[in-house]
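Human
Can I borrow your eye for a moment on a structure tokenisation matter? Give me a protein, with the fold worked out from its sequence. Write it directly below this note and I will take it from there.

Assistant
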Amino acid sequence: DKIKSAIMADASSSKSVKISVESNAEWLVQEVALGGQEIYVQPLSMSEHLTTLAQKIDFTEEETDVRSHGGGGGGEPDKEPTAFDQRTWPWAGVCTKLRGALTEMSVLNDVLNVAKEKRYVVLDPIISPDLPTAQQQQQNLLHLLSKRRTLAGAAATLLHGADCLYKTSQVDTVQGVSRSTSDFYKELLALRQHWRLKKSGQNVIGDLSFRSAGSRFWQTGVFEVHKGASDQADGGSVAAATSAPDSGGQDGGGQLRSALRVVVPPDLEGHAFVQVVIQHRDVNGRFQPIISASSKDKRLLIGKPAANLPWQAFLEGAQNVLFCKELFSQLAQEAVHLRSSVPHVVVGNQILCQILPGYQLAINLCHAKVATDKEPPEAFPHRHPKHSHVLEHALHHILRELHQLYLNQCPPHPVSAPMGLPKKRRLAGPHAISRQDLSEFQNADCHLERILKQSRHIVLRKRAVDILDEMTTVSDPSIMVHWSVISDTTESSVKVQVRSHGYEHLCRTPLQLIIGVDKIRAVWRGGRVVCLSPDEQELRDLLTYLISQHQITVAHSLAKSMGWVVLQYNPHVGTGPVEESAHAAILMLSSATSNTVVSIRHGPGCGTKVWIRAAAHGSREECRSNVIKDQKWGVLSGEFKSIDWTKLQGSNFANKVELLLASLAG
């Protein structure tokens, strides 16, 4: 007010200066923008202001007397309260009354609970000496009954524990076999060391499946473990007869008896294996097995009934059945979805796939559910085809590779990327991989395609072995075959050397055969590569042509070492009779004196043919002329005479050529 009056006085004078007075902002400034605009904080409403004041109330604070009263002894008189006193809280009275009401309600609730329920406190009347004697006796009797009931409960607990100890220590005799209860826990501990077990209620159950290894098969391998082997559970196979050497007792035959029995589902009973058979169509149109392989485990087929199997072998057999079912299910699923020129057939427990013309692959699931001494029946019990260890290894490797793929997936990079993306596909963008290379990553061979490729390779390898064995029976020339020790499941190599006995120093004709899946590559000495189809006739024609070329090459080397002059050497002759499979080769030789010419023709089909043209016998004066100065030109007018090659002496082709050239040169 003083400032306002001063301003009004100055304004009334003539010499005053006008000053603009602006009131303070009612709203607080929250932010000043870059353009100079001020953003204010909105004021609180009435309800928000009341809420803010209510939050400041502390109900835990003790009530304090804000007023001061004068005491005796000449105190100062009370001061009149001012309009605004900071020590006085406006909600103090309300807080005090609410706290008092809450305390009274809590006390009332506790009193009601104590009076209604007897578990908190028991109200007994105070015994005074003035009470009658009968009432005292009744009170003593109640105390005695309560103590007796307490002692009876303690005695029952001790008797129950003693009974359990007695049953644990005693030895039961079931079916003539002694077995103690402690042996059950020993074998249960041994079982737990080999198999996954857990307790579900009052039962002990285990798991035979491969889920911990990455399996996603729908069928579960849950089995139950029970005590004793006197009775058998319904709906499942039981194995509880034999046990480890540290079991409780032995039967009459000296075999140890087990203290526990294992119950597996009926679908996992017996023995099972997956059999792969390569069949060949014979003349009558029937398929005959030539090569087979199976996932049979010889350790599980021990020739004993299920009741006499130890629980370890019994569970291994059940797990093997589950393994075979999962393997066959995976192959059947791939056979249905795999596209082929000839559709694959899946019927029951059999898969039929055509691998080559006249050859088919049969995959069978053999399972004997009845617990007998016999093994599961095979697909071809009356025939014993050749066993393939490659296919057997492939059967055991399929599921393990699939489980490894499911269990160990590539971590995402970055973390937001999808799980399981391989590194090659992840780097496809930065490395600018083409569409063709990217499609190769996605179109990987499935497990059935790998087995089909291995089967085709086995068939081609068997064909090559049969043809080479057939060709090695020929004595002239001798064929040496060396198979490579290091090979792949879909590729193998063999080196073939053709040589003539006794003339190995003159010529050796090598040939390397690389047997693949759909073709055979033949590598010659000069590095020339010839690709052959799976037809066995092409390989036979190639080896026959190789032998023909070797014979001509040996004759050429032998003639040069003996001093003969080579007039013509052509491995591919275009004249004469046409060969069916390849070309014939020709070699024309002249003696050192040029009075004899020998022509040798050899072909894969026609064999060996030899012609000789010699100079006319006479004096030298008759042969002399003014035109012909050299005697070698006198041979040109003669005629070739054929020689019966079969009547010549010699152990082989090279020996016959050597004797012939030696006789003509002499």
Summary: The first helix runs from residue 2 to 12.
